[in-house]
Amino acid sequence: MFGDLFEEDYSSMSNDHYGKGKKLKTKALEPPAPREFTNLSGIRNQGGTCYLNSLLQTLHFTPEFREALFSLGPEELGSLEDKDKPDAKVRIIPLQLQRLFAQLLLLDQEAASTADLTDSFGWTSDEEMRQHDVQELNRILFSALETSLVGTSGHDLINRLYHGTIVNQIVCKECKNVSEKQEDFLDLTVAVRNVSGLEDALWNMYVEEEVFDYDNLYHCGTCDRLVKAAKSAKLRKLPPFLTFSLLRFNFDFVKCERYKETSCYTFPLRINLKPFCEQSELDDLEYMYDLFSVIIHKGGCYGGHYHVYIKDVDHLGNWQFQEDKSNPDVNLEDLQNEEEIDDPLMILKAVLLQEESNLIPVDQLGQKLLKKIGISWNKKYRKQYGPLRKFLQLHSQIFLLSSDESTVSLLKDSSLQAESDIRRNDQQLLKTLTSEPPGLNDRPSCPHWFDINDSKVQPIKEKDIEQQFQGKESAYMLFYRKSQLQRPPEARANPRYRVPCHLLNEMDAANTELQIQRAECDSTNNNFELRLHLGPHYHFFNGALHPVVSQTESMWDLTFDKRKTLGDLRQSIFQLLEFWEGDMVLSVAKFVPAGLHVYQTLDGDHLTLCEIEIADGEDIFVWNGVEVGGIQIPAGRDCEPLLLNVLHPATSSEEEQCQRLIDSPYVFPSNAEIGSVFTACAIPDGVILVNSAESVGEESWTTIPKEDLKKTFREQGLRNGSSLLIQSSNDGDSLLTKRGKWITSVNEVDWLQVKNLCQLDSEGEQVKISATLNTVVFDIRIKAIKELKLMKELAEDSCLRPIDRNGKLLCPVPDNYTLKEAELKMGSSLGLCPGKAPTSSQLFLFFAVGSDVQPGTEMEIIVEETISVRDCLKVMLEKSGLSGDAWHLRKMDWCYEAGEALCEEDAALKELMLSSGDTLLLIEGKLPPLGLLKVPVWWYQPRGPLHRWKSHQDQTNCTFSQGGVWRANSIQDAPSDVHAEVSLRYLGDVEISEDATLGELKSQAMTLPSFLEFSIPSPAFLRAWTVESRRPGRLLRVHCQRLREYKLGQRTEICLEPLQKEENLGPQHVLLRTQMRLPGKRAYALPVDLVWDTARGWTAGSLRHQVADFYSLPVEKIEIAKYLPEKFEWLPVPSWNQQITKRKKKKKQDNLQGAPYHLKDGDTIGIKNLLADDDDDFSTVRDDIGREKQKAFALGKNKSQEALRVRSGDVPSGAETPARPRGPEASLSIHVGSFR
């Protein structure tokens, strides 16, 4: 379900262009695509909402539900325009559902959006990306609708359409007394495991009886004794629409993991529920239900994808298969049903009959087969019939193979027989169609089924439903409707039926707007820019065309439709150029360094510009096709002009060679000989050397052999910008020896690499710049701009930014820094970016929204270092498009997580030691004023005989906490489970000063509304803990100590534990939970608090004496151990004097604060009375189960990893494959306002 969800479309652009006028044309934002051939609309997936889309499509294709919702007008539901008004009661969920159904019916778009609907649910973007169960959503959505429709005429909509009842009966075998209990249902949950299908499951549930006998008797109230009885269940009331939820997900208690049941589970298209109903005297039609929707789940129990098969009851869609549209010449398509495709003889005969000579190479026969039926021989037939050649050999009475088995043909008799067979099949088909009753083959009356998979809608056949009986892609929810429900004739193929007028008007207006947008988009997408270069405004000079006056006057921009023909373009140019006389030739031209060059003349006035491959932004030269300014123009790629740098020695008037080189640009046609360089430079003879270095700035000269001087420049591999060196043949290498600078190269470690990031069309360009540690950054930047041949304006508005190993751009480097001051190493990569670098008084900061920062999502900002935190926050909110004042800033710490908040909003960034390159996080939620703490408070109710403080809700066997958790309460005086989960209940938030005491915090917590149900005499009867990992952590012991001294921080949470009596714990006291082991049982009594005074030291002996005194037992007759809940183990605390004799070792280990005990407040200590129990074992049965589960989990994990390695052969067997962490499952909820 979380596959490729987002796609980006980038415009492409040719790099073969040197002009400055070329612009990158971005694709306009396109309107939503129109509906496809099915004429039905899908629903876009928001990231993880396929389960929602499938259920919404089912409700939409339930006409009775849709029309009942449409019948509720604005006078009952309100209006969406008033939803933000404080006093208006607007029922947003049904209104958004109405609007979505209207869009699915009437709006001409491929897929509708559920963004407005999920917003009305109160869902965030995280919720829209999270996967949930569609069965759970079905119940929650119906509950939300019922709540939303309270007080309207639709208050019973869900009850009227989906509500049914079940009656459970127990019949006494003695007195025949019947005891019954009625249950309501909106959907029926049926078993899948060990059941063959839906009818089998219903039989087990509503026909089979459970008998109470022998050791399992029933107490009859009438007989007042245990008797034999029979228990059964029946369907008492059937709703118009019946929903079945299949229990495909189960839990394996042996492996301790969830799994999906993928066995075969059949369900009928029509089902008779009469055998399962309490009242069966009615006509059979009253119990007949037709299948109309199947929600399908593909994947496993921890992830997957939903789509839905839906029956179009009102025939709103076009149920036509695309292959039905074709009408081939040969009747091969008539053979393409499943039965005939399964017969390879018929297919091969038909393929060979299409050949004129009935002769074809065997290899081509396989290709023709693939083309005709869409699947290769090997995939379709090889497993059953063997290789193709072998099949042809085995049927030699039909096929004739050549001697080398390379070609095959049909035998003459077989050819005639095949033709007669096909004709006979056609006649039989015609006879069958004419003999069938009119209703069976009448397409409009056939059941129209569609597969709706998010945005995509495809027609399917009824038999395709059978494919969803089993496997990883199988049916998950079934929806049936009463067969007697008939649709009115006016609803057939009429999507406007019963749609309210205001929604009809809204959809009509939206369709009109869509048509306008599509027309504009179509025009934008099919128009492109052409640059017309007028021949009379150019002259031919130095091997290329150049403007006579200026580029602006010589070039005209023309916007033209690329679907029009070349003749239309020529005619339009004639109308623009009224002065033109004579022939007009249009040629494709391109700018090269030498100037404008003409390449290809355009021919074929009947061809469209797309067909002749004219690109957007193409340069078109308009001329007579022969000459410009009286000079014949060379055209074509072969004579493309090359601009070369020619280095040659200067000569004096006495023709003596001077030790000086002249660097001159020359233009040569690509097809000219290299020897023409001598003529151009007026040098009679010599040696030509070419610079063969590939990198910019490097030089490596190679002599061109004399015999290669006849080659052309293109054959020699020369290109624009290549350098040639001419020297006298008499001097050999003397000039190179004397002018060693011509063969110097850039040192490997004395350069920086600068990448051009200023222009999108040249983003890949990069150059190496020579530098030293003392080189100023400004010089490197200017040199890079020159080397990259960029605009001079960038010198005033650009900067250099280091690029790290992950490709991220770092903080810009100030121009006045040297490389040493900027801490840049030689060989580093820098990006030349638009925008100025921050000054010495400015800060360059990264910032992102939220604490979950993904790579590449950070934004950048430059601010003054004297700006306050408050003003910086405003600037960041404005740049990120956020509003409101409920935001604060946090600095990202070294773990790339949200660190401490910037609490002092009036402080300058400089005062808070922020520097350029730091990352700040925009976190939602307003910080309390400076000096105030916002402390979340929880209620902590441990189990034990002394804890009697309970709320009224806690008097039952389970404690419910709104916003908190459910936890089972133990029965009084029952053996305790020492590792039961901790029960925390959220009470609310307390805002309090850091200077307040712990007692004041407790007092203020007692004023919270949620606290009022507890009867606590005073704050002294409360014990305070910090909350760490959803458990009590650090004990806050001193009642009068200030909160500032506890160093709680802004994100600390507190839990309060009720006490039986007041306590005053000092710094030397340690609070332990002690539990006495029950003699003869592997269980413990309920925990009792023990306050251990460690003034005598943290020794084992001191603790043993304290425990012995507390329980009034001899110290030598007890054993104690600390419980380690994460390992399900007990760590015995021995008598050190008996086991440790060495003084130093004793001093090191006789401290329970250190390893391996790390004893602290709240730890559990188990106590064993050796007078009653001399067993050495401290563990319980639950500990054994916990350890076994851990072992099984580890073993299963290793096995799954090993199986994964075996399946992927490229992974070594000994390699460890890290398991992907699975996030905790989140409950699904829909927030509904109160309308009672």
TrEMBL record:
Compositional bias (Basic and acidic residues)? 1199-1208
Can you tell which superkingdom this protein's organism belongs to? Answer: Eukaryota
- EC number(s): the record gives 3.4.19.12
Q: Which InterPro entries match?
A: Papain-like_cys_pep_sf (IPR038765), Peptidase_C19 (IPR050164), Peptidase_C19_UCH (IPR001394), UBL_USP40 (IPR057763), USP (IPR028889), USP_CS (IPR018200)
Under CDD domains, the record lists: peptidase_C19C (cd02659)
Task: Provide the top EC class.
Answer: hydrolase
Q: Name one GO biological process term.
A: proteolysis
Tell me the ranges covered by the USP domain, including all copies: 41-483
Q: Which reaction does it catalyse?
A: Thiol-dependent hydrolysis of ester, thioester, amide, peptide and isopeptide bonds formed by the C-terminal Gly of ubiquitin (a 76-residue protein attached to proteins as an intracellular targeting signal)
Q: Provide this UniProt record's keywords sorted from A to Z.
A: Hydrolase, Protease, Thiol protease, Ubl conjugation pathway
Task: Give the CC-aspect GO terms.
Answer: cytosol; nucleus
Chain spans, region Disordered: 1196-1236
The record's annotation in Pfam families points to: UBL_USP40, UCH
What are the protein's GO molecular function terms? cysteine-type deubiquitinase activity
Q: Which family does it belong to?
A: Belongs to the peptidase C19 family.
Protein name listed in UniProt: Ubiquitin carboxyl-terminal hydrolase 40
UniProt organism field:
Neophocaena asiaeorientalis asiaeorientalis
The organism's taxonomic lineage, starting at the top: Eukaryota, Metazoa, Chordata, Craniata, Vertebrata
